[in-house]
Specification:
Na/ntran_symport; Sodium-dependent nutrient amino acid transporter 1; 2 domains; L-amino acid transmembrane transporter activity; amino-acid transport; 169 residues; single chain; 82% helix; mainly alpha
């Protein structure tokens, strides 16, 4: 039963991720048939997933997990919080919340959103980078080339997303 539940959770997550990608592509290219987009995303996902079935797949998984799940999410949370609270503005954010919920927020929430949360996230990110000893899996220690490649791929993806946003403006 446990493995059936895990399989169901995995398939459900894969369907949700794939549907999000299909929706984004079909919105961008409305003349393209949806089944072509679906087939393309499934084939690309299958081919990328083949990497994890090789004997070195666990090493690739550790790299991808660390850089896509830990460091990058914390970094993006910090940037997003700073952008919303300090660029968009705390006052405008409070007005938007009041408009949507028809309730005013207290001093505690304003303090947390505007000062404590951005500073705390930045401190945690910087501390994590200072304390980082290098990535390892078991006795294998990743060299700087492997981490450099993964970092470049992550930066390329982030730059591509921002470039698409800028071009659409």
């Amino acid at each position: 039963m446990f493995f059936l539940m895990m399989f169901t959770l995995g398939v459900g997550s894969a369907v949700a991720y794939n549907t999000a990608i299909i929706t984004i592509i079909s919105d961008r290219f409305p003349r393209l048939p949806v089944w072509h987009i679906t087939l393309g995303t499934c084939v690309v996902g299958f081919l990328v997933g083949l990497i994890y079935t090789t004997p070195q797949g666990q090493y690739v998984l550790v790299l991808v997990d660390y850089y896509s799940g830990g460091v990058s999410i914390l970094f993006l949370m910090t940037l997003e919080t700073v952008a919303v609270m300090w660029v968009y503005g705390l006052r405008q954010f409070i007005r938007d919340i009041h408009f949507m919920l028809d309730r005013s927020t207290g001093f505690f929430w304003r303090l947390c959103w505007g000062i404590i949360n951005p500073i705390f996230l930045a401190v945690v990110f910087v501390y994590g980078q200072i304390q980082h000893q290098g990535l390892a899996y078991g006795t294998y220690v990743y060299d700087s080339m492997a981490t450099g490649i993964v970092t470049c791929v992550g930066m390329t993806v982030a730059a591509g997303g921002n470039l698409c946003y800028i071009l659409e403006m």
